[in-house]
């Protein structure tokens, strides 16, 4: 099947999210305003996509991503003069709020206190930091530089990504797509998805059958939405004891994005691996397969310490953060590259280095294509 056929099949069989049209209208207005002002726009995708197991979803498959990379990158893009569309997993980390919303030392209420006059104020020890971050946030909001659009499922994400990328096409080479979301590779297609909560016991199953019988349906022969087993072969242990999830591959739509949705924009994607021996090879493979402009490789364990830029016609470029009070030795770097995490926390945010390096490549992309 051609890439276009795969796209058509996927989008015609997987329903769009409820707010797609409203989100697209917001994105269009945002892009038009910034294009008119000659400002660059970046689409940052962030966080994990869920894979629902039921249409009325109680259970879903998820992944580890909290959206740190995307939310942090969005802040640095704003600092670098970009307008940012932040397409993110609902309730994951967001720019600026991230400094207080997901702190390991407590929730955001822990940063506040009731003053003597009864009003609420920031705790004195965080007041300066909060003032500075709040002021950056207010600038982004009042100058309309940050548009946040949420998604939840893999289907929502792909619909939103296509709609917004197509709008980004009007920016030509000045549009930048920075795809940092952790996107599921597998999903349950709608025709094999249970309508209701999957039952774990015979009792639940019998109750569903009784309800179906009362409604004049026979579930034993009917392969309708009430049939929750999405696996084709006959199970060896009773249904009441097992849940077999048979997932289809999510179509690889990056080629469609690069060729069709935003053909003149700069497209950079991330490649996540856990095995250090395959990271660069997989990043290069991705670049060759999708013919885009940049793959940023990172290892799960060391992603806050080091990344590698893989781009056409250039040497691999490793970016690494400084250590607190120490220099990197050759031996340290070797261990890091093998996925060994230093004991201390990173001395700074690696996005501080990633974003200027991406911007540099974007400058070159604009020069070559405008
Ligand atoms: O959200 P986070 O900061 O915890 O993780 C970021 C990341 C590892 C998901 C991102 O850097 C990334 O590699 N995204 C692409 C993942 C993929 O290969 O699909």
From TrEMBL:
Belongs to the PPC synthetase family. Residues 211-234 are annotated as: Disordered. It comes from Bionectria ochroleuca. This is DNA/pantothenate metabolism flavoprotein C-terminal domain-containing protein. Residues 40-94 form the DNA/pantothenate metabolism flavoprotein C-terminal domain.
